[in-house]
Amino acid sequence: MRHYDGAMSLVWFDEPAAPRGEQLSRERIVAAAIALADADVRGEVTMRAVAARVGSSTPMSLYRYVGSKDGLTDLMVDEVYGEIVVPAGDWRTGLRGLGLSGWEAVQRHPWFARLAFSRPPLGPHALALYDAALAPLEAFDLGAAERMGAVNTVLGHVFGSGLALLEERAMRERAGLPTDEDLTDAVRPYLQRITEEGRYPHFIRWANDPARLDPAPQSFERILEWLLDGIEATLVTAPE
């Protein structure tokens, strides 16, 4: 029985269709869609492009494997969730690993950060990830909302950083500014003008300081540690 009629229909209700020969399968379709999204500066994918990549004559032939475009999105997102690892250990080891592994994943697939917000994380890889991240938090006297809040604080940093990466990549492509040096050269005349006008003295003092990015003030890793410090301040060991 299919469950693709509603606005929030889920592909997880159904087993994938049996592959037709060597040409089509759910796995091949998802792999093709991910490759296309990785190659596109905005991470956009169409069913027509996926059909062409897997050698199908029509996009309609894909629907018996993924149900709908939303179903394909669910499968793509869950595949990337499967690349994120929560290492064994205490809560901080687990959440730090979640953050660092998630950041590696969104650098490989920047579109993941956008699509992760568009569908509920209910696939098998996503559920396994949440389960592993929540496990070490059971040792503390936290409510359900607080436990999930700690995990989502880290994932929010991952997804926010991934969205910034996706938008910056699109901006650089659109503006033809592939390197930091290109971007600096492009804005230099404007910075010189506002420096001469003296209207924003504190910003200009920062912008003209040659050491303003040494060390990098907001690396992913540094912000992650700040977040973990904040979470640690709320933890109270659960009573025996």
From TrEMBL:
Pfam families: TetR_C_1 (PF02909). It comes from Pseudonocardia hierapolitana. InterPro entries: Homeodomain-like_sf, HTH-type_TetR-like_transc_reg, Repressor_TetR_C, Tet_transcr_reg_TetR-rel_C_sf. The keyword Transcription applies. One of its GO terms (molecular function) is DNA-binding transcription factor activity. This is TetR family transcriptional regulator. GO terms for biological process: negative regulation of DNA-templated transcription. Keywords: DNA-binding, Transcription, Transcription regulation. Residues 87-234 form the Tetracycline repressor TetR C-terminal domain. PANTHER family: HTH-TYPE TRANSCRIPTIONAL REGULATOR RUTR, TRANSCRIPTIONAL REGULATORY PROTEIN.
